[in-house]
């Protein structure tokens, strides 16, 4: 038989043996009492040290108070047994366990004061010692029927041949000390039932002498059995994912009664499930000759699946008495951090990223940005959310989520892209000289990079260059045909933006053929012809000192003609310079004056007259002479009229002056012939 530890838990000291034999001599009683307390104190200290070591090695979740009571129960039972083994049968009087009552001087019994309380399924100890005038050979215990005045129902007889013992008590009651001669009548009742409650009475007998028997009616032991309230004790070591672990379930009580049935149940999601790869083993540990500890172990490989689930240990005793203890498994595990949320966001929107690290205990999660300062952004336990409102392009980059679990650190990274686009720009000189290189770069800052395309504005829409983010338009040795409008188109997120540039190719040719200076009749005429774009400006630097000269400028397409005329003076030794410039280039040429070869330098200079000039002068002279003759004739007639001799003198005047008229006409004609070339 074994002790049940839970009997001690429920009612404290009431479940322990408390009666000592009455010592006949007070000196021996005091000495033994002192020795008893010393042994008790030492034993308790040793058990406490052992318990502290057990706690450090195996943490207990639940039932720790029950376990402490169990240890106390074991210690006190052991001390009680030792005391009774060392006790003296001739002691009498009061003891530390109870009150000694005597029916006669030779027949005394010591029982526990008050009622002994215990729980169903466990055990109870009735401490007892007695004195008798004879030496008994066996002990009988009766359970008293409250309806009867005499206790006649035997529940225990140390004489195994006694068939009168009630069947419900057979095998459940035993003596703590089998040697009856030592007068220790303490018994332990195992596999308690609530029907075991009642009064118990002692009787001793001498087997060989029927007359030698005595029933102690002066005192009875009171036992009260209630329903089982104690739970099994489940010991759980530290649990870590991937490791094998063993859980221990210890049945309540330290009794040596029937071995209880211990079962394990794993509850997942509110349903009973089977643990994969588990190993269970039952164990009975004999603590003393009369005490035992019943336990069961469960060994299995841990995973994160077990975290937060419940393990139940159920202990079933005789008489359908069942108790169970449920504990929650806390498994140390961790998962790599995961980042949830969109890493691509438009400029001005909200960036929202959550980093979660599933683990137990919860990991410390930290957000950092990969910058020179390494600024810590957000910190939380188990999960951290990174929020940036009205996000800008500067928020683009790599963000790191760091999860610290116990002494392990894991990382997760997110590359954040902010979608944005700046204004399209064209860099380069749009005005270039003919023969040089045209180099224009069209670019736009954006994310993702924009597709850049160059086209020339013409009837065919010629495609020139295409690139990503930036496109360069390069034309070597440009000509006038390269002038025109060029269009840069940037495509970003299915949207187009265009900008136009006007390219101007500037050029200036040399002074064209047909340019030069000519001197006729003291009139200097110079002509300068030039081409270019933009239109050139023609200047005559050497003529700026002359007071009177005229300039005529004519333009045709890209050609400019400048004619300058200078009157009077001696221009024979002059040189004239023509300067053409359009702001980008300059052309110069010096002209030598060409003279008319028909002029005579010796004597009076008479110009040769062409037939056209002679005919023209003749007709002019005729007209003038006719006009002059008319005027004279008119004058003469008027004079004669005034004198009254008009008719007689007309004929005479005309005859006398005909020769004069002819001479005047010839003189006028000759003068016009001389001056006509100079008009």
Summarize the structure.
The protein has 679 residues and is of the alpha+beta class. Helix 2 runs antiparallel to helix 3 (64-86). The chain is rod-shaped, with a radius of gyration of 70 Å.
Task: Record keyword descriptors for this entry.
679 residues; alpha+beta; Immunoglobulin-like; 5 domains; twelve-stranded mixed beta sheet; six-stranded mixed beta sheet; disordered N terminus
Give a structural overview.
This protein has 679 residues and is of the alpha+beta class. It folds into 5 domains: 6-226, Immunoglobulin-like; 335-420, Sandwich (Immunoglobulin-like); 423-504, Immunoglobulins (Immunoglobulin-like, Sandwich), CATH 2.60.40; 516-595, Immunoglobulin-like; 611-678. The protein is built from 5 helices and 46 strands. The strands form 10 sheets. Strands 32, 35, 36, 38, 39, 40, 41, 42, 43, 44, 45 and 46 form a 12-stranded mixed β-sheet that branches. Strands 23, 26, 27, 29, 30 and 34 form a 6-stranded mixed β-sheet that branches. Helix 2 runs antiparallel to helix 3 (64-86) and helix 4 (611-643) packs antiparallel against helix 5 (646-675). The longest helix has 33 residues, at 611-643. The radius of gyration is 70 Å and the shape is rod-shaped.
């Amino acid at each position: 038989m074994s002790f049940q530890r839970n009997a001690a838990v429920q009612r404290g000291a009431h479940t322990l043996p408390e009666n000592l034999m009455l010592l006949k001599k007070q000196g021996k009683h005091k000495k033994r009492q002192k020795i008893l307390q010393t042994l008790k104190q030492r034993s308790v200290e040793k058990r406490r040290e052992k318990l502290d070591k057990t706690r450090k090695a195996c943490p207990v979740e639940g039932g720790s108070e029950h376990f402490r009571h169990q240890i106390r129960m074991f210690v006190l039972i052991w001390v009680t047994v030792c005391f009774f083994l060392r006790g003296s049968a001739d002691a009498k009087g009061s003891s530390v366990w109870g009150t000694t009552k005597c029916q006669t001087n030779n027949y005394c019994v010591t029982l526990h004061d008050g009622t002994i309380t215990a729980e169903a399924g466990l055990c109870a100890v009735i401490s007892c010692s007695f004195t008798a005038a004879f030496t008994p050979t066996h002990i009988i215990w009766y359970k008293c029927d409250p309806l009867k005045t005499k206790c006649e129902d035997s529940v225990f007889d140390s004489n195994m041949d006694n068939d009168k013992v009630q069947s419900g008590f057979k095998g459940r009651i035993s003596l703590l000390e089998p040697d009856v001669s030592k007068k220790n009548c303490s018994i332990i009742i195992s596999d308690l039932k609530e029907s075991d409650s009642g009064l118990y009475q002692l009787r001793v007998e001498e087997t060989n002498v029927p007359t030698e028997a005595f029933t102690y009616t002066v005192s009875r032991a009171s036992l009260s059995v209630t329903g089982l309230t104690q739970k099994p004790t489940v010991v759980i070591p530290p649990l870590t994912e991937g490791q094998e672990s063993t859980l221990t379930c210890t049945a309540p009580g330290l009794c040596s009664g029937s071995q209880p049935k211990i079962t394990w149940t794993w509850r997942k999601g509110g349903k009973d499930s089977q643990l994969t790869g588990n190993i269970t083993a039952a164990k009975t540990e004999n603590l003393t000759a009369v005490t035992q500890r019943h336990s069961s172990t469960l060994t299995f490989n841990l995973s994160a699946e077990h975290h937060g689930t419940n393990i139940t240990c159920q202990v079933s005793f005789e008489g359908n008495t069942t108790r169970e203890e449920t504990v929650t498994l806390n498994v140390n595990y961790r998962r790599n951090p995961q980042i949830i949320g969109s890493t691509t966001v438009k400029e001005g929107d909200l960036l929202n990223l959550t980093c979660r690290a599933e683990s137990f205990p919860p990991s410390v999660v930290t957000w950092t940005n990969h910058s020179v300062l390494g600024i810590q952004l957000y910190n939380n336990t188990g999960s951290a959310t990174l929020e940036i409102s009205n996000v800008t392009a500067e928020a683009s980059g790599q963000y790191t989520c760091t999860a610290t679990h116990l002494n392990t650190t894991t990382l997760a990274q997110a590359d954040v892209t902010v979608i944005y686009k700046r204004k399209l720009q064209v860099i380069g000189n749009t005005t270039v000289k003919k023969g040089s290189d045209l180099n224009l770069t069209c670019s736009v800052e954006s994310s993702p990079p924009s597709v850049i395309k160059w086209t020339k504005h013409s009837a065919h829409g010629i495609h020139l260059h295409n690139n990503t983010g930036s496109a360069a338009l390069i034309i070597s040795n440009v000509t006038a045909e390269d002038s025109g409008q060029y269009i840069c188109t940037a495509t970003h997120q299915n949207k187009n933006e265009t900008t136009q540039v006007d390219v101007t190719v500037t050029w200036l040719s040399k002074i064209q053929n047909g340019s030069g200076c000519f001197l006729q009749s003291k009139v200097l005429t110079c002509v300068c012809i030039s081409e270019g774009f933009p239109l050139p400006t023609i200047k005559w630097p050497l003529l700026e000192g002359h007071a009177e000269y005229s300039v005529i400028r004519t333009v045709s397409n890209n050609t400019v003609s400048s004619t300058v005329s200078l009157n009077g003076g001696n221009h024979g030794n002059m040189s004239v310079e023509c300067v053409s410039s359009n702001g980008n280039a300059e052309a110069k040429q010096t002209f030598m004056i060409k003279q008319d070869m028909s002029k005579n330098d010796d004597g009076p200079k008479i110009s040769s007259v062409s037939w056209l000039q002679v005919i023209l002068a003749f007709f002019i002279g005729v007209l003038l002479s006719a006009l002059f003759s008319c005027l004279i004739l008119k004058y003469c007639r008027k004079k004669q009229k005034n004198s009254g001799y008009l008719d007689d003198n007309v004929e005479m005047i005309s005859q006398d002056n005909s020769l004069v008229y002819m001479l005047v006409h010839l003189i006028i004609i000759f003068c016009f012939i001389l001056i006509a070339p100079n008009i």
